[in-house]
Amino acid sequence: MKQADRYSRSIAVLKLVLPLGALGLLSSLFLVARDIDPSQAISNAPVDVAELAREPRISGANYAGVTDDGAALTIAASTARADPDATLRLTLTDMRATLETPDGEVTQINAGLGVLDRAAGRVEWRDDVQVTAAQGYALNAAQLFGLLDDTRLWSDQPVLVQGPVGEIRAGQFALQLAEGGARTYVMLFSGGVNLLYDGAE
């Protein structure tokens, strides 16, 4: 009988002590916890929320299409921002494009900035434009244009080209389908062409 009374008293004490102990632990956690300053957390965030609200953008933008003459054009960009006045016009950063013509030739185009205008049916590359064309040609230009429905690239500004025959400097450049119905593509240089011939080639 005494053992039963002792057991009952122990249970009663535990029912009182355990909840009080739990409350004590919780109160100590709140006392020790560091205060969080929400304004400081926002100011240190790597994303400018106000800028994103003004200029919505998407990451990892991609475009793929086929021209009327059968060339495949793909464009990838790190970010794309829509023009508020023209929804089909996108400003792109870190552009990487590939143009593959039906004859199997591949042209790579890289640029820091650019514009994809689907309403106008054209694309623009600018900011250190680098073009790697077929047959070992590497072109540098400040600006380059292209069409979405026709295989044509061109620049109205001076270009520097390194190729199998040497160095070419020209005021204008174009890559397009050859005239006369042949399904071949040619590079055209104009506007004061200078060739520094590499006799070793």
Automatic annotation (TrEMBL):
InterPro entries: LipoPS_assembly_LptC-rel
UniProt keyword annotations, A-Z: Membrane, Transmembrane, Transmembrane helix
Record-linked Pfam families: LptC (PF06835)
TM spans (from-to): 12-33
Domain of life: Bacteria
Protein name stated in the entry: Lipopolysaccharide export system protein LptC
Species for this entry: Roseicitreum antarcticum
